[in-house]
Amino acid sequence: YYYYKIMTEVTQATIDAKIAELELDGAAISTKVEGRAFINGEYVEATSGETISTSNPATGKVVAMISSCAKEDVDKAVEAARIAFEHGSEWSGLHPNERKAILLKFASLIEEHTLELAVLDSVEAGKSIKDNLEGDVPDTVGCFQFHAEAIGKEY
User: b vs e for 106-126, b when ≥16 Cβ sit within 10 Å of the residue's Cβ?
Assistant: First the structure.
């Protein structure tokens, strides 16, 4: 149903409208993309302060400037993950029904923003919008739904 719904609602006109809305042919999108690394629950600059650009492979235009993380940044992220794993985290303390609800809500939000995510992924990675609409985005929704439904089940 999800695939059918998306493919019947998406036309070239809706894709063109989303591209225009996101200003993907200009530099405005870079102001909408968070370029800092997400480490230990917060956005941080790379230790070096350096950034690198990510570009649309079709046009060569810069999509965003992102933190140029190095070994030190990876070490910080790994240490934060290790502490969360060994000592628990807010997520691990949630009741399984709460975790399930969060994952299902996340899947719902991805589904709600299918066209936007498909267009953004296409611009950044160069994959066709059609492939993203037919595969990547619905598969991502399905993955989160599957794992949400698996919470609390024993096999």
Answer: ebeebbeebbebbbbbbbbee
| pLDDT by residue, tens only, the chain of 155 residues | 455 455 556 666 777 776 676 665 544 454 467 889 999 999 999 999 999 998 888 778 887 889 999 999 999 999 999 998 888 888 888 899 999 999 999 999 999 888 888 888 888 888 888 889 889 999 999 999 999 999 978 65
d(CA 32, CA 23): 10
Distance of CA 143 to the CA centre of its chain: 13
CA atoms within 13 A on the CB side of 6: 24
E-strand stretches of the chain: 37-39, 42-44, 51-55, 62-67
